[in-house]
Amino acid sequence: MNSHPLRQHIEEIIPLTDEEFAYIFGHFTTIYRRRHQYLVQEGELVNKEFWVVKGCLKSCFFDKEGKEHILQFAMENWWVTDYEAFNNRVEATVSVDCIEDCELLYISYEDREKLSSEMHKMERFWAKKTKLGYIALQNRILSLLKDPAKVRFEKLLKQYPLLFQRVPKKMIASYLGVSRETLSRLYT
Amino acid sequence: MNSHPLRQHIEEIIPLTDEEFAYIFGHFTTIYRRRHQYLVQEGELVNKEFWVVKGCLKSCFFDKEGKEHILQFAMENWWVTDYEAFNNRVEATVSVDCIEDCELLYISYEDREKLSSEMHKMERFWAKKTKLGYIALQNRILSLLKDPAKVRFEKLLKQYPLLFQRVPKKMIASYLGVSRETLSRLYT
DNA sequence: TCCCGGATGTGATCTACCTCACATATTTGT
DNA sequence: ACAAATATGTGAGGTAGATCACATCCGGGA
């Protein structure tokens, strides 16, 4: 219990007592999902936020032509859900599905609210996570505005070299906002 | 005091007692800045977060060719600073400057941390604000990935019609990620 | 009031990236 | 181990949007 990976993850930001972690952990549930299974599907109400223990997932949007656009990848120690649907209690517009077989922990919306209200520390933890996420998204926007496809590709490669061994190139392309053909021509 | 616009703004999310608001408000300072003056400049340490009482500003990044890219506009009731520099205590890469003469409130980093620690309500308020901001950025990314310039333009026009009367078109273009010439050809 | 710098419109190229088409390799489920 | 599905490479041609060039217009400061 002392060294559960979720505890380590939270303690990167906020120290916890054994009792606190035990209490927090009591609000999470473990689930397993196989490759290609969905955690969130477009149109559903979203009542869970997931934390990746093991595996790799994507959150993506399908436009009216059926083309996939990837908002986020999630690997070990990442949080994922459709945040708009989860926070605003509306139907999902985004899907979350498994690229590999996954082990996940999830917390329900109600329990997340409850923990946030009861424990200032958890409010603080999630607030900090959201801030970091906000900054990351801002940098991604900036990169989309100013960098050509090749530079965006190189930055991603540098930041997440693992990604290129774990997910198909066409998904990398969807994340970067280029066609798979163009991405292919950016290396080779 | 009862109806200070900052109080109304906070109370859209969390109710406050008179004492609470007075205490919070005591941590803010009013400043005035004229058109073209900077609130944050590239290279500085950023110790303040601003809240716009009156006026219009932009936060922007200049690439190595000197081309401006706009991350955010800020008008009445918006928060603005270089969030990466502010939260991570590093030098600004982004500039914030006034498009119109402005009246602003600001809070220092230390006071923001202090208020967040002391008052769970304020932690909650800022956490909620950051979540909403995160969702907005995610939607902007999605729009950059899937929508052609014309659609991005129309969405912005629909969401913030006021913007088009208050800021020059070339800044709208920088925000959308198109050249001012292309933007011009999207209407007319 | 006048003048100057910024804001805007518009034509003429140019190019990064897209789409379509097809060949080939690599997984993966059974 | 096999068949089907998925992933990847690469050519050809098309297009949204960039860049450059120039004309006009407008607002705000001295």
UniProtKB/TrEMBL annotation, chains A, B:
Residues 34-115 form the Cyclic nucleotide-binding domain. It comes from the Bacteria. Transmembrane segments: none annotated. InterPro entries: cNMP-bd_dom (IPR000595), cNMP-bd_dom_sf (IPR018490), RmlC-like_jellyroll (IPR014710). Pfam families: cNMP_binding. This is Crp/Fnr family transcriptional regulator.
